[in-house]
């Protein structure tokens, strides 16, 4: 359950109450801390820059109260998701983070969106000694970051061990492997991740760490090695601050290899919450979430950086692109995110833009690449970037009907998990939002039932022929993500245009600057039978 608080002052009172409880617990304890330790943390902030100022404000308030030692750490996905990241390939986010002052950071998978060299350049500005990842190496096996970061709070040493999900090599393939198949960087396998994590936990303990905290960008569901699995297969870890799945987890206790409960926590996404780790004088570690909306103020120094960035970005951010007569959304009628498991009019627009800009028979965009809505009214450049922040290049490939069926099947592969007891969401970032074709997928049968291509002359859909070759616009991301299916597809044209630029051109040139009623609702391109 998420612990709700009503103000920053109430948080300080909570810390004070915890101090009293900790003192009672530690009357007979030896070598106890002189003050509690509070560690604030984020994950998957995705360029929600106002959250940095709020978290720094909270940190400063705790410091000023002198009730506890306090630090700030991150579990990744910082550089992508908004105009501040896209326009500068992450530089403005690093400028903000330097002002906040982080103790430790774990890279997320989206830190690789601008390429591994750019990611390394950005983190070097924070100080590589503050970045940890136990399982990222170059082709020679040399690890790119320290295996743990040691920080001292008063007399107490706390070690942070960073772990990145190995699926990043699949999701961000172009950052690891060249188009010719040459591996430049690698993430170790699941088994190696467990071994390396345990080795570094033990090493940090030997180096004097009283507490060891994992900063993981793995997620508690939907991957072969989850953060829950990692806890269960290791020991000596005091808490796991997770990311990647955008879940809100105040505190979930998971038993480690020795049967000891370890708290697992995750803040959601885009600073919905600031995570709080409380280490009492008694040595007990507890975690909870502080909703960002309940943080009363913003750090003046960080806000000054945000204001300066806004001044720099404003001429571009506020530039009109067109307008829309309808709300273009990634959500379903129930208010829940749909774009990764069903058809949305926002997905239709993005896919149509890709097909038109590339001049292909068909196109698809992955649902995970469409991040926000367009409200009714003016559309600005900044809004388009916030909807499609990843600046993926579109390519035109040749694909057979049979290969496309495999692509659709993979994109729908998570749907069958939606109602499982393991709290899986039944959605996948690779879910196919189509243009120029439509499909029907049966969840009970786990099968594509029909696949049809649009006849541009008649305006009617016709059955796709399995062995016929069609032209398809796809992003660089999808070309890598679906590599097992599309590795033999011939690429006709590379880097035709960037995804957000294609959408801008489509609105201005094809739609005459107005997204009209034809996009009022999804257009029946996807049918999911449950």
Task: Jot down its keywords.
6-stranded mixed beta sheet, 26% strand, 530 residues, 25 strands, Purple Acid Phosphatase, chain A, domain 2, single chain, 2 domains
Task: Describe what you observe in this structure.
It contains 15 helices and 25 strands. By secondary structure, it is α/β, with parallel strands linked by helices. It folds into 2 domains: 288 residues, Metallo-dependent phosphatases (Purple Acid Phosphatase, chain A, domain 2); 212 residues, 5'-nucleotidase,  domain 2, CATH 3.90.780. The strands form 6 sheets. Strands 5-6-8-9-11-10 form a 6-stranded mixed β-sheet. Strands 3-2-1-12-13 form a 5-stranded mixed β-sheet, covered by helices on one side. A hairpin with a 5-residue loop joins strand 12 and strand 13. Helix 2 runs antiparallel to helix 9, helix 10 crosses helix 15 and helix 11 crosses helix 15. The radius of gyration is 24 Å and the shape is globular. The N terminus is likely disordered.
